[in-house]
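Continuing the series of single-chain predictions for the mutant panel. This is the parent chain; the variants come on the following pages.
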Amino acid sequence: MTDSRDIHPLGHKTVVWIGCDRSGLAAAPNGKIRMPQGIIMLEVETLHELRTLADLVDRLGDVPLDRLILSPAPGVAVEADMIDVRERDNRLCELVDGVLVQKPMGFRESILAAALAQFLREFVVPHNLGHVSGADGMVRLAPGLVRIPDAAYFAWQSFPEGQLPAEAIPDLVPDLAVEVLSGSNTPGEMQRKLKEYFSSGVSLVWVVSPDAPLSRLFSELDRKAVS
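Parent structure:
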């Protein structure tokens, strides 16, 4: 399917036309656009209410500018763009408010993430508790919100038929999410992530720093600590 886009601000939303060019669209007598058969229309929230780049950065938790992807433009990115950027540029990005935010990961962080995933597997697999994903496992926490924990545990209840989902970005909420801090992760970014995890149903989050002897553990009971 081709991805020919026209971006039309409609209030606080943007309509993204996927599957045809504008020549396939026609105006109906009531002034509305008549959709050709087979076209897919996606509505995504825009950042229309934001006035400056500083507003956008603040909304995202003070994420450094060099981690914000400008193509597609902030506010109109969709999940397909995450896949395109990964395959084309070898960049791992999360999707937040229609913005692609590059996920930072250095060598030390990747070693620690792999060790934590292995640690979880050594407990989860022998006890037949479910599955453990690694540092590139994308999960859709909500429409338009895709996060990539550095490791995550999913109980068997997440797989009613015992089958792993085939799609690259499944509708799955982990029971445990692990975030390994990198140098460019900010307190605001991590606070937002914690709120999103708990709002979507995650029970426990480990926030681990390569430079600290202890990790921070958050549960649903800790929501006040990140509000």
